[in-house]
From TrEMBL:
Keywords: ATP-binding, Cytoplasm, Nucleotide-binding, Nucleotidyltransferase, Transferase, tRNA processing
GO cellular component, one term: cytoplasm
Leading EC class: transferase
Protein name: Threonylcarbamoyl-AMP synthase
Function per UniProt: Required for the formation of a threonylcarbamoyl group on adenosine at position 37 (t(6)A37) in tRNAs that read codons beginning with adenine.
One Gene Ontology MF term: double-stranded RNA binding
Reaction(s) catalysed by this chain's protein: L-threonine + hydrogencarbonate + ATP = L-threonylcarbamoyladenylate + diphosphate + H2O
GO biological process, one term: regulation of translational fidelity
């Protein structure tokens, strides 16, 4: 585990990490959303190491990370609409699903003809991607199905020695993964809500559809398997609605619960709730009691929160 500065990472450390990627090894890296577990997306054997480290199904595609829009065009076919989205939302928590070029390994694509492309809003990560000189495939750096890691310590706990290096830049700023938008067809499709809200996308694009069926969902990670799950039961509570409160429970949310929990993690906004969601799940599971999670409103970051909480509770 090697510390890196958010704005000015040590070039020697970045060069070492990039050399590991080019040699077929794995490197965990920070972004504004969560920590990723990176490997060379052009090297199928390196990508297989990612799936093995995570215990991840091999048909669950990976997101590729780039230092800029021009680099993304080396791995995907980018049209004017996608370029406009990159100009508006990159760097930032938006992944664009595009037709893949043949150079991208079938392992990174999960066997699909499309690939997810992203440019994180994180200077240290961008320096790392630039030094690699290849697309970096990078799912969240945790065991598959567990809450995503928002700090390097959690990466070490989940992944351990599977990563040759962990770049430690402290806590992630956003805390939930990127929005995944499929722009490979005529109408953009929101495959996974995340750090860029549906309202922002519709304001920029006009029509944005929701997915219909598994054939669309399989183009994005985090949509077809249970994710983000702690080792205890998660129940969803909506303020004002009827709810069967457990006798003993822990709680997280913005509103105060109607019953007294054994332990409570309170957030002062839904943005803070999103930022702290995965850490709260990991912390509260230590008590061995059911976790009651407040159900957020649908607008803004609430759509992404609903998605993650639903999957943690096994509702999706």
């Amino acid at each position: 585990m090697v510390p890196v500065d958010f704005w000015n990472p040590d070039p020697t450390v970045i060069a070492r990490a990039a050399a590991l990627i080019r040699a077929g090894e794995l490197v965990a890296f920070p972004t504004e959303t969560v920590y990723g577990l990176g490997g060379n997306a052009l090297d199928g054997e390196a990508v297989k190491k990612i799936y093995a480290a995570k215990g991840r199904p091999s048909d669950n595609p990976l997101i590729l990370h780039f230092p800029g829009p021009e680099a993304a065009e080396t791995a995907a076919y980018v049209d004017d609409r996608a370029r406009g989205l990159m100009e508006r939302f990159w760097p930032g928590p938006l992944t664009l699903v595009l037709p893949a070029r043949d150079c991208v390994s079938k392992e990174a694509r999960g066997g699909l003809a499309t690939v997810g492309c992203r440019m994180p809003d994180y200077p240290a990560a961008l320096a790392f991607f630039a030094a690699c000189g290849v697309p970096v495939a990078g799912p969240s750096a945790n065991r598959s199905g567990r809450p995503s890691p928002t700090n390097a310590r959690t990466v070490a706990e989940d992944i351990g020695s599977a990563a040759a290096m962990i770049l430690d830049a402290g806590e992630c700023r956003v805390g939930v993964e990127s929005t995944v938008l499929d722009v490979s067809g005529a109408v953009p499709v929101l495959l996974r809500p995340g750090g860029v809200a549906m309202e922002e996308l519709r304001e920029f694009l006009g029509e944005v559809a929701l997915p219909v069926g598994v054939n669309e969902l399989k183009r994005s990670p985090g949509t077809r398997y249970r994710h983000y799950a702690p080792v205890v039961e998660v129940r969803v509570w909506e303020p004002g609605a009827a709810f069967d409160w457990p006798e003993k429970f822990t709680y997280m949310g913005v509103a105060l619960p109607e019953r007294t929990p054994a332990r409570r993690i309170h957030f002062d906004s839904f943005e803070a709730y999103a930022h702290g969601l995965f850490t709260a799940l990991r912390e509260l599971e230590k008590d061995g009691l059911p976790i009651v999670a407040q159900w957020p409103p649908l607008g803004g970051i609430g759509r992404a929160l609903r998605d993650r909480i639903s999957r943690a509770a096994g509702l999706l």
